[in-house]
Amino acid sequence: MDIRLEGISHHYDDFEVLRDVTLDIPAGQIVCIVGPSGCGKSTLLRFIGGLERPRSGRVVQLGQAPEGCLNPLTYIFQDFALLPWRSVAGNVSLVLEDHGIRGTAAREIIEDVLARTKLTDFAKALPKQLSGGMKQRVAIARALAVNPAVMLMDEPLSALDSQTRELLMDDLVDLWSRQPFTAVYVTHNLAEAVRLGHKVVVLSRRPGQIQEIVEIEKPLPAREFGDPELDEPQRYLWRLMREEARAADAELMDV
Ligand SMILES: Nc1ncnc2c1ncn2[C@@H]1O[C@H](COP(=O)(O)OP(=O)(O)OP(=O)(O)O)[C@@H](O)[C@H]1O
């Protein structure tokens, strides 16, 4: 299933947040959204997920969700949002229980997603026994369990230290390489954007408008930590963003 955003504009009272955002999110691609603080990235993600409606424009779903999809648009948040009293497997099971899937059918899905996220040996552990990176892998496993058409990822690595972020990026690349998924990935971090994005959408400062869409040509599975070929697109993105980020920063200080 592809997603198309058509002319999305939004304001809260007279506070304009987004202006005329039109964007295609093709199935099987990771689309990163970057832009200065407060430019409307998370708001855009909420519109895609149907949590809120824009004042004008629309989000169109094109084509069918994948077979076995229980929830076409599934969020992954930066704070993991795990139930502390449930084990790793129990947290994944929860989203299946919500859809009445129990017993063998649930066990098969849970085994599959835990294997894909390298969590098989931790199925019985509780969240408090896990590092931040492991917790986020549980959240990713839980999202994969509903076989979503699109994963909506709002700064999923920003609560983690830099080494853990690198490990999780390796995991996400590995996961995508074995079985491509579709994601909209909001981040402040340009290194993450060039490592994970098939395309990177640069929003201007608020009201967020698309400044440019930068395609990252190198195939995702071939990108590595510290890849010199990603330096140039990262520098280019920063050049695009620098003045907007500076202006947004000054705006926030004036409030
Ligand atoms: N429900 C709301 N009511 C009023 N203003 C809102 C609401 N939600 C968001 N905003 C404002 O809209 C602007 C865009 O917010 P949003 O969280 O989408 O930006 P962002 O680009 O994700 O920011 P950041 O990078 O800092 O996370 C911000 O100024 C925010 O304060």
Automatic annotation (TrEMBL):
InterPro entries, sorted: AAA+_ATPase, ABC_transporter-like_ATP-bd, ABC_transporter-like_CS, ABC_transporter_ATP-bind, P-loop_NTPase
Segments forming domain ABC transporter: 3-230
Keyword Nucleotide-binding: yes
Keyword ATP-binding appears in the UniProt entry: yes
Pfam families: ABC_tran
Molecular function terms from GO: ATP binding
Keywords of this entry: ATP-binding, Nucleotide-binding, Transport
Top-rank taxon: Bacteria
Segments traversing the membrane: none
CDD domains: ABC_NrtD_SsuB_transporters
PANTHER family: ABC TRANSPORTER ATP-BINDING PROTEIN, TAURINE IMPORT ATP-BINDING PROTEIN-RELATED
Family assignment from sequence similarity: Belongs to the ABC transporter superfamily.
Protein name, as recorded: ABC transporter ATP-binding protein
Organism encoding this protein: Roseibium porphyridii
Source taxonomy: Bacteria, Pseudomonadati, Pseudomonadota, Alphaproteobacteria, Hyphomicrobiales
